Amino acid sequence: MNVAQGSAHTNLNVLLETLREIVGPRGWVDDPGRLEPHLTEWRGRVRGQTPVMVLPATTAETASIVQACAAAGVGIVPQGGNTGMCAGAVPDATGTQVLVNMARMNSIRAVDPQDFSMVVDAGCVLADIQQAAADQGRFFPLSLAAEGSCQIGGNVATNAGGINVLRYGTTRDLVLGVEAVLPDGRVFNGLRTLRKNTAGYDLKQLFIGSEGTLGIITGVALKLYPDPGPVQTALLALAGSGDAVTALSVLRERLPDDIQAFEMIGRSAMDLVLRHIPGTRLPFEESADWYVLVDVTAPASQFTDALAQLPPAIALLDAVVAKSDGERKDIWRLRHSISEAERREGAGIKHDVAVPIGAIESFLAEAELRLTEHVPGVHPVVFGHVGDGNLHYNAHLRGDLPDADRGRVGDEVTRVIYGLVTGMGGTISAEHGIGVLKKEALERYGDVVELDTMRTVKRALDPAGIMNPGKVL
Ligand code: FAD
Ligand code: 2HG
Ligand code: ZN
After folding, report:
1. Cα 347 → chain centroid
2. In whole angstroms, what is the distance from residue 399 CA to residue 363 CA?
3. CB 232 less than 6 A from any atom of ligand 2
4. Which residue ranges in the chain fall short of pLDDT 50?
5. Distance CA 461, CA 73 (A)
6. Ligand nearest the Cα atom of residue 86
7. CA-CA-CA-CA dihedral for 393, 396, 397, 398, to nearest 10
8. What pTM was estimated for this model as a whole?
9. Digit-coded pLDDT (tens) for 77-109
10. Contact at 8 Å (CB) between 426 and 441?
11. Could you tell me the CA-to-CA distances from 206 to 162, 177, 259, 322 in Å, in that order?
12. Is 224 helix (H, G, I), strand (E, B) or coil?
């Protein structure tokens, strides 16, 4: 060990002692067995190391942790439920970054039904927030398959989308205020529930979608909605992806304020669910190339009439409207199990892209053509949020492809998809963020001025680069 390494080692040890004093035994995890699930992202694609995971119980403790790490020049990795898709919550392999997990900050601070708002700790699990709102007769619309384990701080940090964006917008549209610890340890208190505020820059927006690179979010003020009442759910079987897009357009005209979710599932995604997830079954006699899952808040008769009156130009092969809560859950289980079914199938390459809604059909046709031409044998697994133009165009490589070729072939697939998407005015990351897995892609496909401005913001807030180093930029 040379002298410089020796002093870095001593600094880290001194820091660890300070951190232990700040969080106490309940907020300290260095046991390898307990650390393990926090060192890798949920699909096992990226694995890191850390000397410790600290779990602050308050904003003040979080601020003290950041101050101590800033003084020692040690990197911090904020972690929520660790359900993210881009490995942004995992430390790097050096074993020198401190993991700050927010799970102990899980209090609902206030629910104000009259103000249609609530204020929560960042470590609250999304499902608990939905329930706390429902307990007061209000609705918090953010919903995704990981809602039983992802945290609101992680949702805000990734600007999560999910299934209700069509009606209520992304997380960004649901955030009224943010409290965050800045990289120098000061607390930014933007925790207002105001709908209007033009007093200078809207700084809370910086933290939404920043993936832990500008600060640790400790509290969030959220927008609530009236309870939308009973929801009708249908599963449609369709011949083409264009039929799904047209059906959405027609149903939006007929039921303008009532469509809550409109999700598209390709045959290959549905087949994986039926193969890997016990107890799932299709409620149709015949399978189809495309399925659409619709949630509406219109009365049942109005919904079935609207479905029955879909124009004949839409190749609707079959349709089932759920008649009970159980049937509704069974239909949604098909949709919510896709990521898990893909994980069980084996490593797929995720592409979380968006194109204008009207371009979905041509994007899918062109992607298939180009993949067949350039990377034959790839098996696309496609599903997504049609109403947002957001498709999960995941690709599974041929099983017999030698290991040595898989990286190169996977990169070729990604180049084909991202090239096509950017050519159509789309994005390479619609709702999952960048983390580490999409950093190169952002560099390659991002706008030069946009990236430069992002770096300027990062340097201004985090000149020493200690906040989630190596992520996003
Ligand atoms: P983590 O994974 O812990 O962290 C994600 C990023 O946020 C990291 O960069 C981390 O450093 C940062 N971060 C976490 N907490 C904080 C904090 N308090 N302050 C600052 N930075 C923080 N995503 C969608 O958008 N739509 C979907 O439909 C969707 N469906 C999913 C389905 C499944 C089955 C799974 C496993 C994931 C899904 N995701 C989806 C991805 C994931 O759930 C979301 O990205 C979610 O918002 C991440 O929350 P988390 O608490 O798990 O964050
Ligand atoms: C979803 O829509 C998520 O279910 C996950 O965004 C997408 O696993 C994926 O690729
Ligand atoms: Zn999604």
Report:
1. 19
2. 26
3. no
4. 1
5. 15
6. 1
7. -130
8. 0.97
9. 999 999 999 999 999 999 999 999 999 999 999
10. no
11. 21, 11, 30, 41
12. coil
